[in-house]
What does this fold into?
Amino acid sequence: MLQGAIRHFPELQGESISVGYTKRYGESDIRRLLIRLNPRRLSYYVIGHELTHLVQGMKDRLGENAIPKGEIACDIWTIARADVFLDEPPGYLDVGRRVLLDWKAHRDRVRNLCIEAIERRNVHRHYIQWLTRELR
Ligand SMILES: [Zn+2]
It folds into this structure.
C-alpha cells in the first residue's frame, strides 16, 4: 500500500521516508520525513494524508506549488491527488452527513470539487468555505 501511495507523490521522489507504528490513526514528523501508521486501521487515505503532511513541510522548496498548512488543506490536497486515496472518507474535511453515509456514491464528485477548490485558491483565498458550501 505504501508503494501504491507514494508513486502519486513526485515531490517525495528520491527522499528517504521512515515509516513507524502508532496506535493512533496516523502521525507525521515533517522534519524527520517520518510517518507513523496503525496497521489495524490502514487505508490509502491515511497513508496519503500523512504523506501530504510531509509535502506541506517542503514549503520553501516547492514555491508556488507548496501545499498550505492545516489538516483541512491536507485532506483537500490528498483527495485531489488520486482516486486511490478515496478508499475512506476524509477525517478533517467536513463533507456533510449525507456524503459520509454513502461515501462511495459521492466520492468522485467530492474529488472533483477538491480539484476545483485548489484551482480557485489561486484567485480566491476562501477556497475552503467555497468547497464546504459546494459539498453541502
Ligand atoms: Zn493530519
